[in-house]
Amino acid sequence: MKLILKFTLLFLLISLGVFFVGGVITYQVVKKEIDEEQERFLLERLEFFTNWIQKHSPEEAFIREKIQIYPLNAGHETDVVFSDTVVMHRTLERLEPHIKLDVIRAVNGRLYKISLFEIIVEEDDIVDSVRESMIKIYLLLTVVMLVVGSLVGVILFRPFNQTLDQIKNFRLDQNSPLEFSKTGTVEFNKLNSFVQEMTGKIQRDYRSLREFTENASHEMQTPLTNAIGKLELILSSGQLTEENNDRIIATLSTLKHLSKMGNSLNLLTKIDNREFEKIEQVNLSDKLNAAIDNFSELIELKSLDLKSEHEQNVLVAMDATLTTILINNLLSNAIRHNVEHGSIKTFLDQKSLIIKNTGPALGVDPQAMFDRFRKDQRKGDGLGLGLAIVKKICDYSGFQVQYAYENENHKLEILFRK
């Protein structure tokens, strides 16, 4: 729900309470005004009939629809008293509430009891009138607020929406900082200033971190490559004892593992920094077939039985470089963690890519399969970064990756649509 709509609804909710209290106050004011007017009207009629008595000095009772005058032989004058009563309404032919004025006055030396009646505006009529007027005014206010709120949301929040669009399109690796135009709203200017300062700092930190990562990777790979090359030369010389030969082979394996790990960590950092932005329609069928050809020698070397079932021209939207890395890591993982004379099965259609390979069950929680450097408790070695890279690429590309162990087979499935 948009902020302006929330504000409008909150305002209307508060207005509803204000209108309720206002209706009660309006009712009291209207009722008081009507009562005062009715009493004033009866007092004016009292003066009129007092003058009438003074002129005619009636000896008998004078009774009409809304007036009663009785001559008295004894008593004393009284003040005017107002009271409520019910009187038969001649036109409506039913009892209706009236306001009544009673007073005893001496006129021409004689006492007269005078009673005057006037129909009352009933309370339910006042309530109905106030309720109707308040409801109509509130409905009008609701319509006006919703229309005005929509217009204000478009006009007043335009700078805010422009800021959101710029933030949405912001990239860490862009050279220029965010630039915001001045607005007529102080709060929006403060927001833009804060966002500009914050994104500028993030860009500087990102460039420093990226430079450090690239330098560290380069500085680490260079001596590793030199060391590997020199050890391979020593190994190929044939002048080593069998014991030293084994030691150098182990050292070479460790150095190659470090080199591969450094490249993998650098790749993960690049994916995290969203440096693979060239999204295109990649033919996954061709990529998978090419990767299988590249790994054919390793598959034969380990005496693995490979079975493939691929649909042709399966297209997915992702970065081509990441596609190659994804498939290579999946096949490499299926070969590395397989058993001698085992099997590998690949299945590809428009919905998913499935790779199965034989092998013993893992000694690690399947949910932790894609964590970095997760240790297999049974084998004592790490699962490396291959599956962590697979998971990172899938998340980056909007895919879903699932793992299961079925019938002594490891199954990795990538769903192209979550």
Textual characterization of the structure:
- This protein is an alpha+beta fold.
- The protein has three domains: 3-145, no CATH class; 188-271, Helix Hairpins (Orthogonal Bundle); 277-415, Histidine kinase-like ATPase, C-terminal domain (Heat Shock Protein 90, 2-Layer Sandwich).
- Helices cover 54% and strands 20% of the residues.
- It has nine helices and twelve strands.
- It has helices at residues 3-56, 123-155, 158-168, 186-236, 242-272, 284-294, 296-301, 320-336, 386-397, and strands at 62-64, 67-72, 81-89, 94-107, 110-119, 279-283, 305-310, 315-319, 343-348, 352-358, 400-406, 409-415.
- The strands form three sheets. Strands 1-2-5-4-3 form a five-stranded antiparallel β-sheet, with helices on one face. A five-stranded mixed β-sheet has the order 7-9-10-12-11. A two-stranded antiparallel ribbon has the order 6-8.
- A hairpin with a 2-residue loop joins strand 11 and strand 12.
- Helix 4 (186-236) packs antiparallel against helix 5 and helix 8 packs antiparallel against helix 9.
- The radius of gyration is 47 Å and the shape is rod-shaped.
Uncertain spans: 377-383
Task: Please give the number of β-strands.
Answer: 12
Please, what is the average pLDDT?
A: 80
Q: What is the H/E string?
A: HEEEEEHHHHEHHEEHEEHEE
Structural class, please? alpha+beta
Specify the oligomeric state.
single chain
Question: Could you tell me the strand content as a percent range?
Answer: 15-25%
Query: Helical stretch count?
Result: 9
Cα gyration radius (Å): 47 Å
